[in-house]
## 1
Amino acid sequence: MGTAFLRDLENYRRGETGSAPAALTDRVLGAWIHHDNLLEGESFSPQEIRAALSGADADFDSYLHPLFARIRRYADAVRGVWTLAGQGPSAVTLDALKRLNAELNPDPADRGGLYRQTSPVHRDYFQAICAADKVPYHLRKLFEQIEAEAATTINPVALAADVHHRLMFAYPFRKQPGTTARLFTNLMLLAHGYPPAILPGGLRAEYYAALDAPEPVALARLYRSAMASYLESVTPQRAAQVPLMQAAR
């Protein structure tokens, strides 16, 4: 990481730039919804996101209502992460990880928040994953790492990428493991005072390849770029110039 970027990160963490928002803005929320779901192959347009967040479903055709409900469910998860992060590092727990997945998967048939019971061959991601019976072990080791390193690391980007990479190897949940992992990693970053890493949806292939790599080096590059873009987009002189869907590019 460059020294200028590290300086910007630390200035943000200490609140010295005036850019760290006390509350989640609609602009950042909209970009987060758009980009993160695009990584999953789900394209929500700016118009659909604004319509869903307005809650005015009655003004639109009924076939759009399930889509609006999915958008709002994800928006609620992002808001929950932002709020929970306000509690500080104590919020970064295994229970929080499970709750995030349960919130994203409210249908009992999807076993939200419950560990997978098999090692599926056909799945949304193609990186190596551990055996199903090893999930608790790998998560325990992961949270030991977070507890040991998160408060003192000099490279929060590399740590976030490593946590994400290891979480996707553990692959705890059958439904929405990637979405859950990205929300959780951002919870960790936000809880320690750092900006979120909203990975651009247009880099889906690069993201999947980074997860498939044996080490999180490429993923760390994606994280660094995303966090640098966020820092740039929230500075007062830039914020008004960056359109909603470009806020995390």
## 2
Amino acid sequence: MNYWLVKSEPFKYSWQTFEKDGKTFWDGVRNFQARNNLKAMKEGDLVLFYHSNEGKEIVGIAKVIQEFYQDPTTNDTQWVVVDLAPVQKLKKTITLAQIKEDERLQNIGLLRQPRLSVMALLKEEFDLIIALANTE
């Protein structure tokens, strides 16, 4: 299994909307590295859902339910989407500030490439974020 993080501005597509929809295709990716990350996603992979710009926090866990296919919002065949479904809202959100303060997360893609909208995570990074979200 692989682990990922996707970013969405909550005013465009929030976790709450995602939960209400029950699933979505992850579209609008127009960066080749992010697109390659979408192509690498496998059914069953877990994905952290990050609210960017407003909130700047990881709010939930999703999973890949359909591997990549042509982005239906464009005729340009170089762009793809994957289908995601919500798994659960985090008990406690994990903010960008918390991530920056945690020595164990200093190499996470969110800090190294902050503009990238779809990024891989190490299992250890994913597990640590989930552990932080579950602490009181």
